[in-house]
Design a protein that fits this description.
- The chain has helices spanning about 1-15, 20-30, 35-45, 85-100, 115-125, 135-140, 150-155, 170-175, 175-180, 200-210, 225-235, 265-270, 290-300, 310-315, 325-330, 385-400, 400-410, 425-430, 440-445, 460-475, 480-500; strands spanning about 70-75, 105-110, 130-135, 190-200, 235-240, 255, 275, 280-285, 335-340, 355-360, 370-380, 450.
- It is α/β, with parallel strands linked by helices.
- The protein has two domains: about 70-195 and about 375-450, Periplasmic binding protein-like II (D-Maltodextrin-Binding Protein, domain 2, 3-Layer(aba) Sandwich); about 195-370 and about 450-500, D-Maltodextrin-Binding Protein, domain 2 (3-Layer(aba) Sandwich), CATH 3.40.190.10.
- The strands form three sheets. Strands 1, 2, 3, 4, 9, 10, 11 and 12 form an eight-stranded mixed β-sheet that branches. Strands 5-6 form a two-stranded antiparallel ribbon. Strands 7-8 form a two-stranded antiparallel sheet.
- A hairpin with a 4-residue loop joins strand 7 (about 275) and strand 8 (about 280-285).
- Helix 4 packs antiparallel against helix 17 (about 400-410), helix 14 crosses helix 15 (about 325-330) and helix 20 runs antiparallel to helix 21.
Length: about 500
């Protein structure tokens, strides 16, 4: 009854004054209306149509043409800078600037070292206004350093609720590991939800006579130590066509690997590995699952010989630009299976690939079936000079359903966080990649977790230690030797954090 009375009051108001599409849609989202229902009410209410046919109109707190100033958006904490992703971002920015001639939106693109770049810009008094997209990892790097502006007051003022977004996004929008699950503040507005599936080269599987990986996430046979490893062996070939385990197999002359671009952290979690336990305030690197998980990831490279090491990746990707060697090897048909984040779909991993590829479930570890859940938000830098203008720009990208749909899927390749756009990912993949089943990613959500990017004390320092130690293990050091040392060093960092910091109330 409360919502009914609010609707009646709203319709009475809009009958006596003009209202833009975006003002209407934002109010509709607050009330929980569907897009068709909102469209019907908009027609009844009288659309002022100050956005033409695009659905892009003035923000709630300002009429079109009244905004003034410059907004800089840093793009570098994850996806967003691939050549296929840039045009949509630029087009959306141009649409906003056309509607608001006094506004200039600039993108600062940082393909690598975004963490250092942001730190340097803030220290130098030239901070960007918005960081977008910023994954939970990027947000967590700075959340205990008072870098991000709390968007909660502005969101409440403008009637924007996180209830309009997929529930998975709360972990990043509110950084619940730091602020708590009942936090009222908002660190960022969701702009993309990614999970991971396994992509495989259909032709290589057919040539090897190997059954394709299952798309069913509940298939118990599809496990890291079982059918996945067997398939990877059968698809790893030396120059003479021999597989690992065959007599005379040349481990130094492998021309095709069964798996690549396959992340050690995923294996670590699949075996029951963890980074930190909030209840005990203890690091978890000396647990049996943690040790076994990273050791199996190393064994894929060094013992089973089904995944290329650093030197082999460089050789397979010879001719590619630095950092793109695995991408080059995948496109050249030298990797049979890879981890395919939805964020990779709009990159050369997924776009215009010169062979047929399909998606399958990620293989299960002995403890769990794990897939990464990457949560992207747009966040305002607290040191920025024009919070209100930056907020209006961020709202346009993240809350306007038309703009959000384009940004999330057409640029980032993500599942759009707005509930009203939940169909965009499936619809988009079916149109762009007819041979690929988008439902594989959607069905993977129950197995997906943001644990690898979630904040814990001394987040940046401990993650640096983890990276170095995991590198050593993949390089040949026994996990049983390296992980206890990592546990001791990480715990010292965590204890030091608690000596000099306190968690928010």
């Amino acid at each position: 009854m409360h919502r009914r009375s609010e609707l009646d009051q709203w319709l009475s108001e809009c009958a006596t004054r003009p209202i833009s599409r975006r003002q209407f849609v934002e109010r509709a989202l607050k009330l929980g209306l569907s897009v068709p229902a909102a469209a019907a009410l908009l027609a009844a209410c009288g659309d002022s149509d100050d956005a033409g046919t695009t659905g892009q109109s003035a923000p709630t707190t300002a009429r079109a043409g009244t905004l003034q100033g410059r907004v800089q958006i840093l793009v570098g904490f994850g996806t967003g800078n691939a050549p296929a992703q840039v045009p949509v971002q630029e087009a959306l920015a141009q649409a906003f600037m056309t509607e608001n001639p006094g506004v200039t939106i600039e993108f600062l693109r940082v393909p690598s070292e975004a963490r250092t770049k942001l730190t340097t810009l803030i220290a130098g008094g030239e901070p960007p206004d918005i960081v977008m997209p910023a994954g939970l990892y990027g947000i967590s790097l700075f959340v205990d350093q008072d870098v991000w502006l709390d968007l909660g007051p502005m969101a409440e003022r403008d009637g924007i609720s996180l209830d309009a977004f997929l529930p998975e996004t709360a972990a990043a929008a509110q950084v619940t590991n730091y602020f708590g699950s009942d936090a009222a503040g908002i660190v960022g507005l969701p702009v993309g939800v990614h999970d991971h599936a396994l992509a495989y080269n259909v032709g290589l599987f057919e040539k090897a006579g190997v059954a394709p990986p299952p798309s069913d996430w509940s298939d118990a046979s599809w496990s890291l130590e079982g059918r996945f490893l067997e398939s990877a062996r059968a698809l790893t070939v030396d120059g003479a066509g021999r597989n690992p385990g065959d007599s005379g197999f040349d481990a130094g002359g492998i021309v095709q690997f069964g798996v690549g671009h396959f992340f050690r952290e995923g294996v670590f979690y699949g075996f029951g590995g963890h980074l930190y336990d909030a209840g005990s305030k203890k690091a978890q690197f000396d647990l049996p699952g943690s040790i076994a998980g990273i050791q199996f990831a190393a064994d894929l490279v060094n013992r089973h010989r089904v995944q290329p090491g650093t030197t082999e990746v460089a050789s397979l990707g010879a001719g590619a630009s630095k950092g793109n060697e695995e991408q080059f090897a995948w496109r050249a048909g030298k990797l049979a299976m890879i981890d395919m984040c939805s964020c990779d779909i709009k990159s050369p991993y997924g776009t215009d690939v010169p062979f047929e590829w399909k998606a399958a479930a990620m293989p299960a570890g002995p403890a769990r079936r794990f897939a990464f859940l990457n949560l992207d938000v747009g966040a305002l830098v607290k040191a920025g000079r024009n919070h209100e203008l930056a907020w209006q720009v961020l709202k346009y990208f993240a809350v306007d359903p038309v703009a959000e749909r384009r940004l999330a899927y057409e640029s980032y390749g993500a599942v759009p966080p707005l509930k009203v756009n939940r169909d965009a990912f499936v619809t988009g993949i079916k149109a762009d990649l007819p041979a690929v089943d988008p439902q594989v990613w959607i069905n993977g959500f129950p197995s997906a977790s943001p644990e690898n990017e979630s904040w814990f004390p001394a987040f940046a320092e401990v993650n640096d230690l983890v990276g170095k130690t995991f590198d050593q293990i993949i390089g040949g050091t026994a996990a049983s030797q390296a992980m206890p040392a990592l546990q001791q060093a990480a715990q010292a960092k965590i204890d030091e954090w608690f000596r000099t910091n306190t968690l928010p109330d």
